[in-house]
Amino acid sequence: MTIFSDFRERSDTKPTARSLERFLSERIRSGSLEAGTRLPPVREAAWQIGCAPGTVARAYQALTSRGLAHGEVGRGTFIGEAASSLGLPLTAARDACTAGMSVNSFLMEAPDALLEDALAQVAKRAGAGRISLSYQPEAGPLSDREAALPFLSRWCDALTPEDIVLTAGGQACLAAAFASLVAPGSGIACDALTYPGVISAAAVNDVRLYPVTMDRWGMIPEALEELCRRQSISLLAVMPSVQNPTGVAMPAERREAIAGIAARHGLTVIEDEVYGFLRPPAGESFSRLLPDSTVLVTSLAKCIAPALRVGYAAGPGPLVRRIAAAQNAMLLMISPLLTASAAHILKSEAFEKRILTLTDGVRKRAAYVAGAFANTDYDAMTGGLAWLKLPEAWEADVFASEAEALGVKVSPGRYFAVEARSAPNAVRLSLGAVSGEERFRKAIDTIAGLAAKPYATLPVTP
Predict the structure, then answer these.
(1) What phi, psi does 164 have (nearest 5°)?
(2) 335, 350, 365 — which closes off a domain?
(3) 300 within domain boundaries
């Protein structure tokens, strides 16, 4: 008898990832699957159940994300403590042995000194009464908006503090923009493959996303033009410097073509430049091409740390004020302690040094990945993302599950597909999330080895 014998007996319909996850969760909570039990490898489990390997992989990933299971390097996936459903102890144990390349961050170089200095100075100023601890203006403290002007001038011209809204990170900015800038009955045009936060921000605001076909250079202008003729679109979301998940930079001529289409159809443009600090612009920013209808969105989550939840919306006053009002309705205000910390960092010489350090480190890692994989795009990876198309013999979800069992977490292509049926057979790797060069290279070598050896057959059990 196997772990899945009862599942086969009680299931009279085609197995799904959700039903398999529910079955395993029930057995964990009842104690019939004890902590430390090793789950069968994905393909062996699929053979036992009579389903696709991708179904098992998704179920295992769901258990892992909930803290009910964890992967161990070279050993497989194991049941954790049922009582740890919040995932805190298991997450800590899992992170200790897993190279997490699925969530994109740039903590390869910890910003400890920058943050320590900023937090100490802010605490000192707050204690002396030099930072208001009361409610703040909708757009955020004026002095902290002024401090952001040099940073935002990378993409915008002639900004004033009145053109800037401080937000609780880039994600909060997107959600507020989608809530306030989309005309009733219309939708948002975006890349067919996009940052999952775009998908969730649209979903929570009950706004429809319209995927635009992409090619090697990102969004195809002709596809956007055709979409605008057929559908009611009022907002265009673009990531021109570093497209997430592919990492490509939109060339100058394509930016100009897309800007022309946006102008003809009266679209408001959301220009996401959270990764823009990593490389010089490949062309004029949309904020310069369409200054009257573009809102720049960026944050300090990537260049400093995700824990510093400070973002920026910069653009025409009438647009950013609507974003400020929407955020105010959701959050009431952003903490002045956070915005003061961000302002202190932006004004320090150490900030520019950190940008240079991260840029150089990502380039070196991109070069290593390019050497480990055939047909990879080095230029795209200098944006900190590696988009790896898998051999046909691999399914992306199965690959991600097997990679995690070997100690490396990656993100399968379906996470980024606006339309599930268009999910590519690929995975995304975050090049900046793993600390330590030796650990990073070991993770890349593991992924390269796994990609080169897809399972050709299911296990044979006598």
Answers:
(1) -120, 140
(2) 350
(3) yes
pLDDT of residue 14: 77
pLDDT recorded at residue 34: 80
Q: Which of 324, 350, 376 is the last residue of a domain?
A: 350
**Given a cut of 60, is residue 457 above it in pLDDT?**
no
Tokens describing residue 232? 């009611």
> Is there a contact between 77 and 402 (Cβ–Cβ < 8 Å)?
no
Whether residues 11 and 137 fall in one domain: no
Bridge partners, residue 188, by sequence = 209, 235
CA dist list (Å): 412 to 58, 127, 190, 428, 458:
10, 47, 19, 7, 21
Stated pTM of the model: 0.79
Q: Using the predicted structure, report yes or no on whether residue 280 has a pLDDT greater than 90.
A: no
- CA 242, 174, 92, 41 torsion: positive or negative? negative
Kindly state whether residues 203 and 73 are assigned to the same domain.
no
The Cα–Cα gap between 194 and 175 comes to 15
Q: Is residue 420 part of a domain?
A: no
Please tell me the total count of domains within the chain.
2
Confidence of residue 13 (pLDDT cuts 50, 70, 90): low
Which residues have a Cβ under 8 Å from the Cβ of 338 and sit 6 or more positions away? 168, 308, 309, 310
φ, ψ (nearest 5 deg) of residue 429: -115, 135
Domain membership of residue 400 (yes or no) is no
pLDDT at 28: 80
140 and 170 both lie in a single domain: yes
**Residues 179 and 275 grouped into a single domain:** yes
What is the pLDDT, as a whole number, of residue 359?
A: 95
Q: Could you tell me the sign of the dihedral formed by the alpha carbons of 196, 197, 200, 205, in that order?
A: negative
Distance, in Å, from the CA atom of 141 to the CA atom of 434, rounded to the nearest integer, reads 35
Judgement on whether residues 329 and 217 belong to the same structural domain of the protein: yes
| pLDDT on residue 86 | 33
Where does the pLDDT of residue 269 fall: very low under 50, low under 70, confident under 90, or very high at 90 and above? Answer: very high
* Alpha helices (H) in 308-381, listed in sequence order: 317-331, 336-346, 349-372, 378-381
Residue 106 lies in a domain: no
SS3 406: coil
Query: Of 57, 47, 48, 44, whose CA–CA distance to 16 is shortest?
Result: 57
Question: Given a cut of 70, is residue 174 above it in pLDDT?
Answer: yes
Residues 85 and 158 in one domain: no
151 is in which domain, residue-wise? 114-350
